[in-house]
């Protein structure tokens, strides 16, 4: 490797190939460290840097790393704008990767600058030079540090050119350039306004012929558009304000990739959506898998209004991104999704047969952006649900129907049926039994009695019917003790027992009929031990009561947590057996209406307590909750506090002003009330600022919409 070469040692042809060859050492470094990858012009941007380095080397007789560094230092002192950015990337490669310092000589004359610029123009082929001219930075304004709007290390204000073809919006990503020093400050626009020197509405009224809207003013009044941008990244790493009136442009793909991906290495990057660069080309935004599925951090929360925020669609896209990352990097990730509303997720395998089926609509005004994003996601990140469906990586489960002829409680008739008996629920943890009751029923006495009932049932392998009979017999035997009786060696009050038994009987006969077996232990629980990496299982709980949904959710979460805990424990000791080795290292569990399962407030503390604790400890064993809900303010605060990634779709103005959305600037909160379908405001623990991301229509929706359109 050239990295271990002595700087003064002459370079061989193999060494030079590592410097200027495609997919060689320098090229790979540009992808990994400078994030010049996964966008439309990435290959051209890398080629431009390799060609610049190649031209520099060609001017040196018997090149060594030291001589190349000296020549680069000479070129850097006269470079500006795009040329300077290219040379700075090469300098960073030499200093940060090769460990060869580059010093800039003192400027002597202005003549050399013209020579260097001319040389730079020859470093790329004719076609590439044409593209480079097209890519010349289009300035849209300048930074304006003023008394009323000073620049700070965290934000800056800029005015926008008086041109109605320039569209700066809240959520736009811009970059301020110091063209002499090559420093770039990338920021997210969080506020924008337009003002003129007309002081009052009354003055404007008089100026238009005393309120005649069809009459123009005699003199055109300049309207100044100014915007405030929060700093996402400063290229030199300094924490200081912009000191001049630097020109501003929309951020390039490379600048966006560096701003939101500088701390995320390629082997950990998970696709989370796309934003758009200065050419309106999609630029991928990534998350760090270690902070989504563990072990550094975990959990994702998505909020937005029902029907317009497309929360489930975005959650599914994130799950696909995690599965693709797992497949490409042997991440050992599997996913479980609860279908809580309608039947959307139960048919996610109803996909086009091949990707070519999307070609006829790739230019359709409604679907072309989704087709383009899906193709980019597949080619650059390996998202391929069509292939996964063919490989049968999706499995579907639904509660067993209570009718005599059997079947499932689901719109998908071929889903695998599941049911739970008393012993299976106890195996998942005594907390699963609490879900059989309403929150108001579970005072301290009821919780203690439920724990005793669980102990007795486990010791004697009882069914629910046998357990109810056992408790009633114990109450009969305790008649001589007044209002108290003994169960499992512990004293309980008969009034508590009567209340619990009545509630339990009602739940088994009505609310949980089918999903919970009352008289037998020949149940068929979801076979969670069979879950494997790169698989996505969907559990349909749509037709269950709230109590039934809580029961299934909590039972599954507890069981998965226990299995992951067991796997992690034996992996640490080095005694991982075959069955445990095949079990995933990480499991992501998606559920909509998260506030139903871990609501805020103390009245639900017994029901949600163990799930809240699992959320706090989940990252350490590889369990991640991907939760969605309309109102994040209704979700337990501790669950939100342990969440590493937040996404917000279109939201209600009242909800967006509450404390869980404090990470959004005021302008972004207003933006959140107006977002279109397919857009999310995203914040990740390794992102310095939120980012507005676009994601494609789910493939199974896309197929359905295209079919419907063709029928018409």
Q: What do we call the CATH homologous superfamily of the largest domain?
A: P-loop containing nucleotide triphosphate hydrolases
CATH class of the largest domain: Alpha Beta
Structural class: alpha/beta
Radius of gyration: 31 Å
Largest beta-sheet characterization:
10 strands, mixed
What is the CATH topology of the largest domain?
Answer: Rossmann fold
Strand content: 15-25%
The overall pLDDT, averaged over residues, is 89
Side by side, the strands of the main sheet go 12-11-15-10-16-17-9-18-19-20
Number of helices: 25
Which of globular, elongated, flat, extended, rod-shaped describes the shape?
A: globular
CATH architecture of the largest domain: 3-Layer(aba) Sandwich
Number of strands: 20
- Distance separating the two termini: 61 Å
Whole-number count of domains = 4
Helix content: 25-40%
Outline the low-pLDDT stretches.
Answer: 108-126
Quickly list its features.
712 residues, Rossmann fold, single chain, globular, 10-stranded mixed sheet, 4 domains, alpha/beta, 6-stranded antiparallel beta barrel, 25 helices
Can you characterise this structure?
It is a single chain. This protein has 712 residues and is an alpha/beta fold. It folds into four domains: 2-134; 139-251; 284-415 and 530-711, Rossmann fold; 437-511, no CATH class. Strand 13 and strand 14 (490-493) form a beta hairpin. Helix 3 (42-58) packs across helix 5 and helix 18 (546-573) packs parallel to helix 21. The two termini are 61 Å apart. The relative contact order is 0.11.
